[in-house]
């Protein structure tokens, strides 16, 4: 169920509180000033990434406190933190916890992409506020930016749960952190060259939120829903209504005395595909995160597919043991992806070519329970008719071969793998 957070409707900062995007370039060497800046020193300020400031110039700026504690000590009436409005597309709390465990991947621009249907970003920020001349340090601000992404098998919709959390501050006495602001500014685009005819995306009514730290602290979460309209089932006419879209986000920081600097810096990026592909995709329509790595996993200890798994393992790791045999042979699917092939005639051509190769090596196996197993699969563009001989065939137990085929088909539909989509193999001992 999709629940939209009710947000206070605040306008973006005026010229006297102009939004500043994060500066990550190295700045002019500065000398740490005493925390008694004059009005002239602070009339034009800027937030910069702490990593661009030499360590000795951050001396004394390592005593940050939670924003709530700071606000109360400065006489602000801090409302209770709101948690009831946190949306639950599937179970964001579970994804939130998992994302924390994948900190290294989660802080990347694309975040940690758990699957074709779940992704998340947890990106810590450490900012220093100082005057634009680099002579006075006015404070420090740390926080975590979050974006949880949910795509759907069965709906042309994608949800993002965004938030600013764990805010801690340390301003000098003459600076008021209750007047500092942070903003999350989303935008979207459509890649027409990778989409079908007339690709469209409908954005949420509000794509940006710029608030005082106190508002973020008490109401950290908000959500956005992007959809793509469909025209009904047109896949039989060759129109899968594919829409390749990118959702990006800029982060801004500002204070009342900020210099009028704007520009934008993409700190989050998410690639999405909408489709109405029909039966070949499983559920007839849906949305996926296209940057997800899809793997078909098989175990050599699984009695249902152990012969299939061993064959694929040999093809990927010991190709000298496979047929056809030739010097320097390598087979894709491990480091190189495989790509789904939908065309039934081409699939049949792959099977016939593979069966012919099995006959060359093992002769007539009719009357046995064996079948000719081929890898890469007939339903991939890397199949045996590709012409590079980078494939392998082997006689294996027929039931094992058929079970492996069913698992392949399940992987296709569970992940909305369409024609040309990539995937990898993962074979365990």
Automatic annotation (TrEMBL):
Keywords: Signal. It holds the Pfam family DNase_NucA_NucB. It comes from the Bacteria. This is NucA/NucB deoxyribonuclease domain-containing protein. Residues 349-425 form the Deoxyribonuclease NucA/NucB domain. Residues 1-33 form the signal peptide. It comes from Streptomyces lavenduligriseus. InterPro entries: DNase_NucA_NucB.
């Amino acid at each position: 169920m999709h629940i939209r957070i009710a947000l206070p409707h605040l306008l973006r900062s005026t010229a006297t509180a102009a939004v500043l995007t994060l500066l990550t370039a190295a700045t002019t060497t500065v000398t740490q000033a005493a925390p008694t800046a004059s009005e002239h020193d602070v009339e034009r300020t800027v937030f910069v990434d702490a990593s661009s400031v030499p360590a000795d110039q951050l001396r004394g700026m390592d005593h940050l406190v939670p924003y709530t504690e700071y606000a109360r000590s400065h006489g602000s009436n801090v409302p209770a933190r709101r948690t009831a409005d946190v949306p639950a597309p599937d179970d964001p709390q579970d994804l939130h916890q998992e994302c924390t465990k994948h900190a290294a991947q989660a802080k990347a621009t694309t975040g940690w992409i758990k699957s074709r249907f779940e992704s998340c970003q947890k990106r810590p920020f450490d900012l220093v506020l100082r005057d634009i001349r680099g002579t006075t340090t006015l404070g420090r601000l740390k926080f975590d930016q979050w974006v949880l992404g949910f795509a759907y098998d069965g709906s042309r919709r994608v949800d993002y749960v965004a938030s600013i959390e764990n805010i801690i501050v340390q301003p000098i006495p003459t600076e008021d952190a209750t007047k500092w602001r942070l903003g999350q500014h989303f935008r979207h685009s459509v890649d027409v060259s990778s989409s079908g005819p007339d690709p469209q995306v409908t954005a949420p009514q509000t794509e940006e939120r710029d608030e005082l730290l106190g508002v973020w602290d008490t109401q950290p979460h908000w959500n956005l829903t992007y959809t793509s309209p469909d025209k009904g089932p047109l896949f039989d006419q060759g129109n899968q209504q594919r829409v390749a879209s990118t959702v990006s986000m800029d982060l801004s920081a500002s204070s009342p005395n900020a210099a009028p600097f704007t520009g934008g810096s993409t700190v989050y990026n998410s690639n999405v595909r909408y489709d109405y592909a029909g039966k070949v995709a499983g559920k007839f329509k849906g949305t996926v995160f296209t940057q997800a790595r899809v793997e078909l996993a098989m175990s050599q200890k699984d009695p249902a597919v152990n012969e299939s798994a061993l064959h694929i393992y040999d093809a990927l790791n010991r190709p000298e043991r496979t047929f056809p045999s030739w010097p320097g042979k390598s087979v894709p699917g491990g480091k190189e992806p495989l790509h789904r092939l939908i065309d039934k005639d081409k699939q049949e051509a792959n099977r016939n070519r593979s069966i012919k190769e099995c006959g060359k090596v093992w002769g007539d196996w009719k009357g046995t329970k064996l079948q000719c197993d081929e890898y890469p699969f007939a339903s991939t563009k890397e199949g045996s008719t590709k012409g590079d001989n980078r494939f392998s065939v082997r006689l294996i137990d027929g039931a094992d071969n058929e079970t492996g085929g069913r698992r392949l088909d399940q992987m296709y539909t569970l992940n909305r793998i369409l024609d040309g989509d990539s995937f990898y193999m993962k074979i365990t001992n």
